[in-house]
Each structure stands twice: as structure tokens, then as C-alpha cells.
Give the backbone structure.
Amino acid sequence: MNRRGALAFWLFVGPFAAGLLLFTYVPIGWSAYLSFFDAHNTVTPTEFVGLDNYTDMLTDRAFLDSIGTFSAFAALIVPTTVVLSLLLALLVNQVRVARAFVRSVFFLPFACSYVVASLVWKMSLFSGVDTGVVNTVFGWFGGEPQAWVGTVDPPLYWVVLVTVRLWLQLGFYMVLFLAALQRIPDHLYEAAWTDGASPGWQTFRHVTLPGLRGALVAVLVLNLINAYQAFDEFYNILGDARGYPPFARPPLVYLYYTSLGSGGQDLGRGSAGALVLALLIALVTLLSGRVLRRSSS
Amino acid sequence: MNPPVGHNRTTVSRVLVRLVLAVAAALFLLPFAVMLRQGLAEDWSTVGELFTDDEVPFARSLLNSVIVSVPQTLGQLVVCSLAGYGLARVPYRHASKVLYAVVATLMVPTAVTFVPSFVVVSSLGWLSDLRGLIVPGLFSALSVFLFRQYFLDFPLALEEAGRLDGLSRWGVFWRVVVPNSTGFIAAIAVIDFIGSWNQLLWPLIIAQDSSTWTVQVALSSLLTAQNPKITLLFAGAAVSILPVLLVFVLLQRHLVRGVTETGLKG
């Protein structure tokens, strides 16, 4: 019976387990191995270099800058996303007529790829020419046209990077908040009103917000992890035929150019970097999850 | 349920809510309008040009995206639903250890493992090979986890009825569980398909030869090229989002459910 049980289990789980082993566990192990070798353009290196790849990485100004870029990006995108998606959810939740349609409009960009959105942002909305959409609107109010993507001082390229991600992801988080809003039982509102709470701020503060606690934690953590993995919009908006500028390289862009970019594949350093980054994100996720849960309970 | 009469919301605030939503909705639709206007402004000939342009193999890349995304979505559904069911329902001594090994990988974001995975895929000889784009994406720990959570709540009575009718566990899964889970399966499928169609980083490093480019890689290379041809770019963008828009419109109900499941449970 025991053996038959094992057989049945592996019949179901076996294919996935084999794939997980080959495409997740083996890469991580192999990568850990490579990180101690000089692995230029090879996956079977022979020259052991100890911790050199790690010390190289951690003393590399560009690597530390990439962590700084992520921090700046997270500081800009996380609060704006949380506030705006919650606001959208609250507004959409008030609409009685055509609510599904309104929700779809905000959710629609979720189907769009980062490449396509970057294209629209870079070539039309925020194109540096006077006839670019945003520059035209600026002109109506007497504003000067800006180069946007090309403006480093002040770093206006952040406006482009942040707004494109907001457009793409607000609908997703709004849907999460809407689902959470609908799970708040009506009787809690009734009780609050009976107790004399006004339907505006007081009800929001004492009924809605506590009811959204779980969703808030989920949105914050997901948002942080996604910001950490930002690649597509940076690569497509800031990169061009001349390559990628030396600034505003988030961790994955840095890793891409170090380990797999045109300057030759340094898989040893790339692996060391990947492991350091994986460790870092695991720590950030665990800590933020714990801090948020504690502060909200 | 309405707030008490004395607190009834004024007409002013109702109008304000609608006004803000209308402005926001217009802003959200603007990028789509821009894309259509720039890409298909004059006539449909730009689309024809797109498919005959020699520099970027657009038609081929569109086909590659279909060849990658459709089998990847279907394959992932089969592999991950089986594993999720096994973990939820098939008793086995080491099941909890296996589950732990699956959940542990959720902590490691796939994007950070792209260098190590590149190493494995290149040693399999799958660089510039569609298999390198399809196969690694079949094994999603998140999907397995979500399927397991879902199957834990599946009505046991239905499965027992199937067993009484003489079905094996395997038979129960395919003849009873799957037909009664189409809503959930569709939810995961839509999320998978959109993710697969839209991804860039993985195909960018694996599909090094332009004959294996997906549509995202092709658009990205057009966008970062010298003097990009703007109308072609926008026409390409408009064509590339058609399949996902179609899926979005047809299966939106499932998509909303999928997002809620993946976001709040994942």
C-alpha cells in the first residue's frame, strides 16, 4: 500500500518535480558553483578564484549604484501605486451603473506588455519634440517643452519610468482592493452608522481600512518585489542604438549587461551577483512582510 | 445597503466621483488611442509593410510568440494542476517535504534566477531554440501552490462518488475534478497566457538569433534601433496586443478571479 501510495503521488507530482529540479534547483546549485570560478564565456570553468567574484561585485560601484537605483525607484513607485490604486478602487466601488465597464477600462492596460507601453511613452507621450503629447499639453499652460527621457538634471526620466508602470499596474492592484472591499461585511458598516459614525472619513478609518489590512500587505509586498525585478521599461525607454546610459540601472539591468551583455559573458560574476540579489530580495520580502503584519495588527 | 438618511451623499459629491472617474478613464485610454492613431493613421498599408519589411522578421516573430505562448500555457496547466492535485489529495509520507521544496522556490524570484537558468538552458543546447523559450516556463511553483490551495477546497464528496463508480485516482482527476474546475483553470490560464505573451527578459537572452525572436523582442529591437521607423513601430505594437486584448475581453471574468487568487493568495 505504501509503495502504491508513493507511485500514485509521483504520477501526479513527478513531472513538475523533475522540471523544478532541472530548471530551478540545478541552476541555483550550478550558479553557486560558478560564482567561485573564473567563468568567462563558459559553463564548465577550471580556474577557481575563491570569493573574488563576490568581492569584485560588492566593491563594484555600479553594483552598489544599482541597489541605489532600485531604492529610488521603490520610493517613487510603491507609495504612488498603493495610494492611487486604493483611491481608484474606492471610487469604482461607489459607482452603481456600468461598474464592470469602468473597472475594465482601468484594468485594460494589464493586458499590454511593458515593451508596447514603453514604446508609446517614449515615442509619443513623452517624446522630446514639441509635438509630443505631454509637451503639447504643457504648451497650453505656457510650459516649456522638455526632453523627458533625455533629461538627467533634474532627472525627469523618472517621470516617464514611474508613469508607465503606474499605467500598467494600477488596474491590477485596484482589482485586488476591489475584491477586498467586497469582502467587508455590510453589517460592519451598519453597526458603525448606528454608532453615529459619518459615512465619510470616520467609516473609512474604522471599518474600511481595517478590513483592507490583508490586501494592503499583499499590494505592498508584491509591488516591492516587482519593482526589484524591473527591467523591461528601463531597458526599452533608456536604452537606444548607442547602448544603455551609465545611470539608472536597476539590479536586473546591471546583471544583464555584466553577465550576458555585449561585453562578453562573465557568468562567474553574474552568478555571484544573482545570488547576492536573490538573498537581498528574500530578506527585504521577509522583513517588510513581518514589519507590515506587526504594525497593522 | 445605504447609509442613514441624514447622511445621504449629496448630488455634488456623486457628480464629483463620476467626473474624477471620467477624467481618469480618458487618461487610461489615451495610450491605446495614441497607438491606433499613430500606427493605423493613414491606412492599413503600414500593417502590410510590417509583414514585408526585411530588416525585422515581424511575421516570423508573431508566429514564434504563438508557438511559445500557447503550448506553454496549456503545458503549464497540465503539469501544475497535476502536481497541485497530488500535493493536495494523494497521501504520501514525504508529501509535506515536497511541498516545502516547492514553496521555498517562491521566495526566489524567477527574474533573479535568469543567469543560472541561462547556464542550464545553454548547456542543453537550447539557445536560439524555441524549446528554450517554452520548456522552462512550464514549471511554475506559484501555479502549483495555487492549484493545491484550490483543490484542498474541492468538494470531497464528488471525488468519493467517482471512486465508488470505479474510477482510479487518475480517472477521478480527469473525469471529475477537471470538468468541475473549469472556472479556476480558465483563471490561471488567462494569467499564464498574458504573462507568457508579454515577457521580454527571458526571450531576449535565449532567442539570440532573430529567427527565434518573439514579438516583444522584435518590437524592442525596433524601438532601440538607430532611427526607429515610428509608424511601423506603432502598427507593430497595435498588432501585437490584439491577441491579448481578445483574451482580455472574452475571458475578463476569469481574469479578475485569477488576479485576485494570485495576488491575495500568492
